[in-house]
Design goal:
alpha+beta, about 35% helix, about 150 residues, about 25% strand, 5-stranded mixed beta sheet, globular
């Protein structure tokens, strides 16, 4: 049975390994142990922030998925809160088994529970399979986003 919970520091090696285990992540992540100090510092900051939720999907004690939700306060839409879902990964040996759908259903429920009026995601333009998946969940690609690496 798959369960979801807030990530713990002991989950970091599994989370980073999932982030590194795809064509885009392979070039920007380093899953070697011991983990780079930046991962630990980022985890500590996320864990201390009440508007951040780094979560894992667990099956039989094995971490098989991860995602991060940022709860965003805003003035637009009459001051509605929003949820930003990012860094979604499923362990490679568990992909295409419905786990991603379960993770999104859980994440959207977390956003509703926090009073969010919308939930949004960003995805790389090159992830065509992910785009189809997000559309199957009811997301629409009605905005164009830009990022600048610093």
């Amino acid at each position: 049975m798959i369960t979801f919970r807030r990530a713990q520091a002991s989950d970091l090696p599994d989370i980073v390994a999932m982030l590194a285990d795809d064509p885009l992540g392979a070039g920007r992540e380093d899953a070697s142990v011991p983990l780079a100090r930046g991962y630990v510092d980022a985890f500590d900051a996320i864990d201390a922030d009440p508007n951040q939720l780094l979560a894992v999907a667990v099956d039989g004690g094995e971490v098989i998925g991860t995602l991060q939700i940022t709860f965003l306060a805003g003035l637009s839409r009459k001051g509605a809160w929003g949820g930003q879902i990012e860094a979604v990964r499923v362990a490679s040996h568990r992909r295409s088994g419905g786990i991603g759908r379960l993770m999104f259903e859980w994440a959207i429920a977390q956003c509703r529970a926090r009073g969010c009026g919308r939930v949004q995601i960003t995805t790389d333009k090159g992830r065509a399979d992910a785009h189809r998946f997000y559309e199957s969940l009811g997301f629409t690609g009605n905005h164009l986003g830009y990022k600048k690496t610093l």
